[in-house]
Structure formats: structure tokens, C-alpha cells
Amino acid sequence: MGEETALPRAERRRRTEARILDAARSLFADMGYERATIRAVAKAAEVDPALVMQYFGSKQELFQRAVEVTSAPGGGQAGGPDPGDAQAAVEEVVERLLGSLPMKLGELSQSRLAMLRSMLTHPEAAVSARRALGEQIDRVAEALPGEDARLRAALMTLVLLGVTVGHQLLELDELRDVPEEEIARLLRPSLRALTGQDPR
Amino acid sequence: MGEETALPRAERRRRTEARILDAARSLFADMGYERATIRAVAKAAEVDPALVMQYFGSKQELFQRAVEVTSAPGGGQAGGPDPGDAQAAVEEVVERLLGSLPMKLGELSQSRLAMLRSMLTHPEAAVSARRALGEQIDRVAEALPGEDARLRAALMTLVLLGVTVGHQLLELDELRDVPEEEIARLLRPSLRALTGQDPR
DNA sequence: GTCTATACGAAGATAGAC
DNA sequence: GTCTATCTTCGTATAGAC
């Protein structure tokens, strides 16, 4: 029954699929949905273009799979500090936002970059981006006091988006080789100002 | 000699060209470089697709023309206040940035939106965007004191970029129907914090 | 000068050979 | 199951008719 030649069929298939997804993420992140062709993805993954279609059905589905959040770990904001301490909660949310800045490059952020790259020109990517940003806005808004918490949360999220776009996607010279802590240090008072809390 | 039938050939040509450019700006702004096809532009301008090519040579040149800054008026920051008054200069630069927020929609900003829409996925648009952002960063940096003026100026510019993207391009619900003065009011302290000046 | 017709290439998707 | 070959569609660009 079992083939002693190792590499069960399912395992081999799984690895090929992963290789295709990696290649797709990389190409989508680099040049966006339109310019990243199935053929180029296949070549990068060293498989036949038809195989990509066989596995994923369509380019659109491949994109969804490549972009979909492996939102597994780290997400939970496990019970903040004392619920009564609004100031601490606000500071924590600022630090959480600043911490999301780096995404270290590569790693699991490749899928996020792919989404961001295409969000302005590909309708489905725009939907994903709105959802992702909306969730982030929700989380931030929870920690903010006041009437216009959601608006402030949205602006804070967009500040980070702008910096990420300029840094990771447009690769502006001004941010090249600037350590993330430096950026975070300059941004921190700016984000605090948006919380509407006493900047202290 | 002159035809009494009015509409000189040159004038007619000029108007047709303008109509094509308007249609192109609108389509590029709405769906980006790749998805805005020559055929669609021609249809929107009510001309033959071949005529578009005849007038502009290629899609790329049409894009350049559609995006190119009609940077004529309003640009000059006619001599700021007392050069010695750094604080006033900083406040002025913040107000200038905030004033660039609205672009009122439509009007002359259509070309700017077209550039922003495609900047992440179309190489030429990225070049234009880097240049435009770089110029803005230069102007802001001039008014800022300190060692890291350019970095701060870049971050301030990217804050505005992020808000513009979220508002005009992604059309986030959270910013829908929010008057520009409200956004400016919330953003002002945030930008001041980035200037490195005493927020006072 | 303006438009019809078409050439040319590329991309996504499919069917059938191995 | 994997790949070759092809089909269809579409977009840019060109050539020739009116």
C-alpha cells in the first residue's frame, strides 16, 4: 500500500501549492494584480501555467488565496490594562499602531503588501483593504474616548497607511535606511495628538 | 478666404483634444492606468479610438499629458513671514499642507487623482508621484528647523497622502461626509507635533 | 483629416495528449 | 495528474479607404 519512495502525493501537492502561493504573493506585492500574470507566477514557481489554473481555478481566486489573512497569531489584544485607566489604554493603542509599522519586510507581510499594492486599482483588493482598515479602525476606536472616536481612529490608521505606502511601496528616498524606531519616535507624538487625550 | 462657417480647423482640433484629455483624466482617476482602455476613453469622449492614437501617439503619452501638472497658479509661497520667526513659518507650512487636503474634488485635481490612483501599480505614475511628493517635501523641509527636517517633512507629507488616499481613493465610510475643516481641525495638532516645534 | 478595418501580441482559460 | 496546444478575448497600434 504505502509507497516507500516517500513524498506522498498529498504532501507533494501541498508543497507545490505553497510554492505557487509564495510566488504569487511576491509578484502581486511587486507589481500589482494587473501586471502580475499567471504565466509569470508559474515561471517563478517553476511549474506549468496550466497547473496554476488547475489548482486555483482563476487568477482572481489565486489573488484571494495569496492575500487572505493568515491572521492567526498575535491578533488578540489580550485584555488591556485597567479598564478605568483610559490614558493607559490610549498609550497602548498608539504603541500597537506603531508596532504594526515595520512588518519587518518579507515574512508574513508579503500578503499584506500584495493587498496594499493593488488596493487602488483592483476592485477586489479595494474591498479587502477597506475591510482590513475597517477592522483596525474598530480596534483603535474602542480605546479612544469621546464623540468622534471613530473619525480619530480612522485618521490614525490612515497616518500609518500613508507612511507605509511611502516607505514600502513608493520607497521614497527620504525614508530609505531610516530605522523603524526613528520613524516610530517621530510619529508617536503625532498619533498621541490624534487620540484627543492630554498629550502630557 | 476665411470660411464663414466658423469653427476654424485648429480650434475644432483643440476642443476635441481637450475633450479626450478630460475623458482620459476621468477614467485614469477612476480605475487606474491598466483598466482605463483607449477604447473606453474614446467612447467617453465620443471620438474614434484611432483618433486618440493619432493625437497622442500612445497610451503612455496620453497618460503623461493627462497627469502633467497644470502647476500654473497658486504654487508660489510668496515670501513667508519674517525669516527670523521660525515658529510662524512652521505654522504657515502646516496650514499650507492642510489647505492642500480638499482639492475640492473634480476641477483641476482630477489629474492629481489620476496620478495617485496609478502610483502603486504603474511605473511611470510612480515616478511622477515620487517627484511630486519630493517637491512637496522640499518645500516643507525648508520651513522646518533641526537636523531631521527632511524626514519630518516626509512624514508630514505622507500623513496627508494617507488621509487623501483613504478619503478620495478608498472612500472609507469613516470619512464620508466629514467636512474638510473637521479633518483639518483634527489633523492640525498631529502635524504640529511632527514639526518638532513647541506645540504651545 | 477622420474613420473603418485589421494586424499583432499577450493574457486568461480550456481541451485533449501523454 | 501533468503538460502541450489551442481558443477566445482584448488592447495597442497601424494602414488604407473615404
Shape of chain A: elongated
Termini Cα gap of chain A? 71 Å
Helical content of chain A stands at 55-70%
Strand runs of chain A, count: 0
The major beta sheet of chain A can be summarized as: none
Q: Which structural class best describes the helix and strand composition of chain A?
A: mainly alpha
Count of separate structural domains of chain A? 2
Oligomer kind: homodimer
Strand residue content of chain A? under 5%
Mean pLDDT of chain A: 87
Question: From the alpha-carbon coordinates, what is the Rg of chain A to the nearest angstrom?
Answer: 20 Å
Helix count, DSSP H or I runs of 4 or more residues of chain A: 9
Helix-strand string of chain A: HHHHHHHHH
Work out the largest interface and the residue count of each chain: A-B, 52 and 52 residues
Low-pLDDT regions of chain A: 72-77
Features:
67% helix; 200 residues; mainly alpha; homodimer; 9 helices; DNA-binding; 2 domains
Describe this protein's structure:
- The structure is a homodimer of 200-residue chains.
- The first copy, chain A, has 200 residues and is mainly alpha-helical.
- Chain A folds into two domains: 2-66, Orthogonal Bundle (Arc Repressor Mutant, subunit A); 86-194, no CATH class.
- Chain A is 67% helix and 0% strand.
- Chain A is built from nine helices and no strands.
- The first copy, chain A, has helices at residues 9-35, 38-45, 49-56, 59-67, 86-99, 109-118, 123-143, 149-169, 180-195.
- In chain A, helix 1 runs parallel beside helix 6 (109-118).
- The longest helix of chain A has 27 residues, at 9-35.
- Mean pLDDT of chain A is 87; it is low at 72-77.
- The interface between A and B is large, with 52 and 52 residues.
- The structure holds a DNA duplex (18 and 18 nucleotides).
